[in-house]
Amino acid sequence: MRNKGRPDFLIFFATITLLGLGIVMVFSSSSVAAAAEFNDGLYYLKRQALWSFLGLVGMSFLMQVDYHRLKRWGVPALIVAVVLLGIVLVEGIGREGGGAQRWLRVGPVNVQPSEVAKLCTVLFLAGFLADRGEKIRDFWRGLFPPLVLLAALFLMILKQPDLGTAVALAGTAGIMLFAAGADGRHLAGLAALSVPVIWWAIMGETYRRNRFLAFLNPSADPLGAGYHIIQSLYAIGSGGLFGVGLGQSHQKYLYLPERHTDFIFAILGEELGFLGTLSVLVLFFLLVWRGCRAAMLAPDRFGSLLAIGIIGMVTLQALVNIGVVTGSLPITGIPLPFISYGGSSLVFSLGGIGILLNISSQGQRV
After folding, report:
1. By C-alpha distance, which of 287, 280, 355, 301 is closest to 22?
2. pTM of the model
């Protein structure tokens, strides 16, 4: 282990700022719905604050634990993730919501196994790829074993169904494989083969097909499949440069669905305007920049790949969410990291940042 220095302050600053902004926006976007549903306008705020506290505790703990010690937990963590993904699919055990069976009830809270699987997969792949070294350029000895695992995880998450998270997981793995030195021809071939698979997944389910068609032309079904994106664009467009003011959103009055979860960025754009959304993009850019820097300065291959996986996971999730909200991508249920309401995503994202900060504290000084 290298002598530890200070964790990267800018990674910490960007994360805490996004988290604080998220708590404010969860309250602003959910207060009307919470009052109507639970007779308590603070209902979602209190739960988000609790999840934020637990996430920060996890982040602080992982900041202090030498990340090298996590390497031996890669396989056990992945086994736990696979077991949870299997359990959630069992009828009567997995909890349903919005037509999907994605949650497990653990005491008083719901846990989303796919969020567990993302971080566990990054941890396992970082250790596996670090040990493989140059063998990763050989398809059968280096690339094929993790592909079998990733295919199994992809199909289990797709079965929930959750195509967005499955694609995000595959994308994160692809970034890590590229960073590990996998042959570009192999990766290009896999990317080409994945296109018909994703197309089949979209067209094979009526609701996904409707969402895709609505993405191409939302106005064709303005009260059905196109409703989400039309209301989202109304929210963002009405924000202008400075926004209508914090807490003054009109779309949060039950016009925009999923206003405090998947579409919270639209409410943020409405209330804080272009400058507010630009600030969020700058904070994510800051996080990506410093995360990539931590990966390049990491003292070993494992730390570098682990940092790349964590920052890739967060970045892809943010890009997909913002792409959906702005009508640039078809609708899929992926939250905006650190900002959207939701416990599992928030806790495991903050845990990943804790590991990233630990890696940055052991990096080379330049």
Report:
1. 280
2. 0.94
